[in-house]
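User: structure tokens for this one?
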Amino acid sequence: MKGLYRFSPIKNKDELLDAIEYIHLECFKLCKNSLGKFFPVSGNIGVFCHYGEEYKLLTDIQKELTEIPDDPKQKYLPLRQPIIIPAKDGIPETTYTHLYVRKPDPYRHHVGDMDFLMTPEEYKKLKERVVEGKVKGARNPNHPSHDMVEFFDPDSDVLGYIGNHHLL
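Assistant:
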């Protein structure tokens, strides 16, 4: 039986891939709802855990799916084989090259997140509009290491981010 979260606890690779597809589709919807169109992705996708045992299982699955990083502190790990999600409902086919499994956080209900990219010029204009409060469902999360904009919806359990550079 599932608990308070849509996918958690994820129990196997197939459920992980289902969660990844869900994150993908819902984040594209957030992007479209806020900006009116889709943007390219940076290639990374994050899956959030809510339970300790789930985190252990998913990091074991992640080890099967990803290369061993040179830097043990690397957040997004390169996939051995990209995850390709076919086009659906107007959302373009997308290839993910990196995977992140987040440690359990009992205060966050989200299934996961992903990052979009835009040109520096587009991003500068977007950021100004977000700071002015003119973009529905977008905010500046003031992340200490990344300049980015977060897409959200209180009724959604995913988060999307956009920046003018690769966020890996």
